[in-house]
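User: Hey, quick favor. My workstation is busy. Could you predict this chain's structure for me?
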Amino acid sequence: MLKFSFLFLTVEKPGGLFDFDGTLPLIAIQFLILMFLLNILLYTPLLKIIDERSEYIANNLQEASIILNKANELSSQYEKEFSKIKKEVELDSLTLQNLHKNILEIEIISSQKIFENYLNQTINNFDSEKEKILTSLDEEINSLSSEIITKIVA
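Assistant: No problem, here it is.
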């Protein structure tokens, strides 16, 4: 049986490997019909979907670039406004610091004046008390000295 199958495989039809009989045009027609059907049923809708997707992506990229440009413009505008506001805040801060410094200096000067007035008043009170005490001491000294003189003379 092995010999028979071997013989069957070695038998060739006339025409060799490429036989151009009636099957070749039939296969060519089938191939063309298949290509036509695949083109209509598969490739055309697929290409349409791919084109729509490409158009969708292109539109989204264009919108994204427009949004990005707007965002960059807004960012630069906000940065300018921020720097302007920052300068204003720094200027206000310096103004407030100077105002606070001036108020503090005025308070210190007024406190010094009040302290000097109080000190002068206290010194004047001490001087007047000193004068009173010295006067009373003079009177006591005079009275004691007159008593001593009367006791010595007596």
